[in-house]
Design goal:
Strand content: 25-35%
CATH architecture of the largest domain: Roll
Number of helices: 3
Largest sheet: 5 strands, antiparallel
CATH topology of the largest domain: SH3 type barrels
Structural class: alpha+beta
Shape: elongated
CATH class of the largest domain: Mainly Beta
Radius of gyration: 22 Å
Protein name: YolD-like family protein
Strand order of the largest sheet: 4-3-2-1-5
Order of helices and strands: HHHEEEEE
Helix content: 25-40%
Number of strands: 5
Number of domains: 2
Length: 111
């Protein structure tokens, strides 16, 4: 008579769950998988700042790893400007550039 629900019956049975509910459940599960930003110690922060300054002075390409709640983002380029008062720097690659906040960094290394 009716469809028998198995262990994934709510996902498989369109009669039991509205599409809006499925989207909400998936979004809630994704939000619980968010990562927490690591707290960097003073030595790591100093290392990051020195690497950014070296890229600015010597025009050396660096790769920066930006924190994201789901997956870290990696960008490679040259530091062209540093604003110490706002703790941000300008990273340029090809014809594009982006202002990046130092507090968003997880790691910086020379390519």
């Amino acid at each position: 008579m009716g469809k028998k629900l198995e262990k994934n019956g709510l996902w498989e049975s369109s009669r039991m769950m509205l599409p809006e509910h499925k989207v909400r459940i998936i979004r809630d599960e994704r939000e619980t998988l968010r990562r927490i930003k690591p707290i960097l110690d003073e030595q790591k922060l100093e290392e990051i700042e020195c690497t950014l300054a070296l890229s600015l002075r010597s025009h050396v390409r660096v790769t920066v790893v930006l924190f994201d709640p789901f997956e870290n983002t990696t960008i490679s380029g040259f530091v062209t400007s540093i604003h110490t008062h706002s703790r941000e720097f300008k990273l340029q690659w090809a014809e594009e550039w982006k202002w990046i906040n130092v507090d968003d960094l997880v790691e910086v290394y020379i390519v």
